[in-house]
Amino acid sequence: MVEKGMSEEGVRILKYLLEEDSEVEFRIRTGTECNRKGFGRVELLDAAGKPLPGGRVRLRQTGSEFKFGCNAFMVDQFPEAEQNEAYEQTFAAVFNHAVIPFYWSDLEPEEGKPRFERHSPPIYRRPPPDRVLEFCDRFGLIPKGHPLCWHQFLPKWIPTTVAGFRSALDRRMRAIAARYADRIHIWDTVNEAQTRFPLLRPDIPELGDGYVDYAFRRAAELFPDSQLIYNDDRAWWSFQGDNTASFLLAQRLLEHGFRLGGFGVQYHMFDTMLQEAEVPLRPRNLLAVLDLFGKLGVPVNLSEVSVISRRSLGDGDRFQELATEKLYRLWFSHAAVEGITWWNLVDGTAAYAPPGSEEGENRLRAGLVNYDFTPKPAYKVLRRLIREEWRTETEINFVPGGDNRFHGFYGDYDVEISTDGGLVRRKLQLSKGARNVFLFRLEK
User: Fold this and answer.
1) Beta strands of 28-183 (E only): which ranges?
2) Could you give the CA distance from residue 412 to residue 416 in angstroms, rounded to a whole number?
């Protein structure tokens, strides 16, 4: 397929992602139906617990069980109040899941003085966790903390010995748990252990062998009710089947009894990825990677997603629109995947670059909206998929002793029940793996 206005580079990259493959399309179509939807049965009872003679049940989905997320690093980061309100509204109009920054260097630049509180000294792209939780509460977003342990973004004061590092990490995790363990139940526990390269990077403090084990062991003790995730950016373009390094790391954690609750697979369209575009963009390869990590038996998250629209692609917005829709459809359909998280909602707000510019990472133009919050085509695609196509509205004519089932996407529903006795409203949650039998007793 050749898109009008697309550069030669854009055409080259897209040809892999959009190639015709009836088997892949079958997997996406049937996977969406089988893995993201289920049946629920409704029973209408009178005050005595006996089935009603009849009624009409209308169901309208209001929320998704699947986690459609984005990092929330720009809460209160714009100069004007109107911009900050626009950011929150634009975010919540699509997403139900938010990533809260816990980067150590910016959360605790001064030892013993973490920036937890709402009015902490400002640091760009690092809003205090208390403030981001307010945002999550306002819009009903599921929060995730990112990350507890990473060899990058360490404060300048961090000890250089293994024992000193472990002691400081323990204090950090205990402080975070004391404040947030009952409010944030998803944590990227260790981030990108495959990229440390200790023999080549003497600038990184000595973490010591077994630091991944240590972090997961302490997290399991301090966050007993949380999902603990290992997150990596080397998950699949170094794909070697079940000898893939990050797969072996996760498998080892499970075999040694660590509470690994999920695996994060990053998908940043940086130049290093696109040099071998056939590997990361061919749908069969993407499915092979998800099939591999599905063998772990823990949920997979597309944990950091950047789909570019940079100027050199020609019509970059069109490129981003087509790539985003194909990728989300494929990821959403796979049984192993429980969530997808976009990285940087707004163009001009990426790392290592002046805000509003097209310098540094901002040149990738991987946001879903422009810096003035006007939506790009990819934003409209996701809003249509997430809020319209992947939502269910249906109704049942209730018959006592009948089938009385509905089929819909997993998530929260508003229920409107009409009987001879009048109209009542209820709620239900259709959930994957649950019994999904809903008994509504209607009082006179």
Assistant:
1) 37-45, 55-64, 67-71, 97-101, 142-146, 149-150
2) 13
Report the distance separating Cα 157 and Cα 155, nearest Å. 5
Identify the helix (H) or strand (E) that includes residue 417.
strand 411-419
87, 75 Cβ separation under 8 angstroms: yes
Where is 277: in which H helix or E strand? none
Q: Phi, psi (5° rounding) for residue 45?
A: -125, 150
Q: How many helices (H) and strands (E) does the chain have?
A: 13, 16
Half-sphere exposure of 443 (CA within 13 A, CB side): 1
Chain mean position to CA 256: 27
* Strand, helix or coil for residue 198: coil
d(CA 377, CA 383): 10
- Strand-pairing partners, residue 70, are 98, 342
CA nearest 138: which of 80, 77, 76, 228?
Answer: 76
> How many angstroms separate the CA atoms of 327 and 286, rounded?
9
Omega before 155 within 30 of 0, i.e. cis: no
> Tell me, what DSSP letter sits at residue 233?
S
The one-digit pLDDT tens for each residue of the chain (444 residues) are 557 789 999 999 999 999 999 999 999 999 999 999 999 999 999 999 999 999 999 999 999 999 999 999 999 999 999 999 999 999 999 999 999 999 999 999 999 999 999 999 999 999 999 999 999 999 999 999 999 999 999 999 999 899 999 999 999 999 999 999 999 999 999 999 988 887 777 777 789 899 999 999 999 999 999 999 999 987 566 789 999 999 999 999 999 999 999 999 999 999 888 888 888 999 999 999 999 999 999 999 999 999 999 999 999 999 999 999 999 999 999 999 999 999 999 999 999 999 999 999 999 999 999 999 999 999 999 999 999 999 999 999 999 999 999 999 999 999 999 999 999 999 999 999 999 999 999 986
Cα separations in angstroms, 242 against 251, 289, 335, 337: 10, 10, 18, 18
pTM: 0.96
Sheet holding 55-64, edge to edge: 393-398, 55-64, 411-419, 422-430
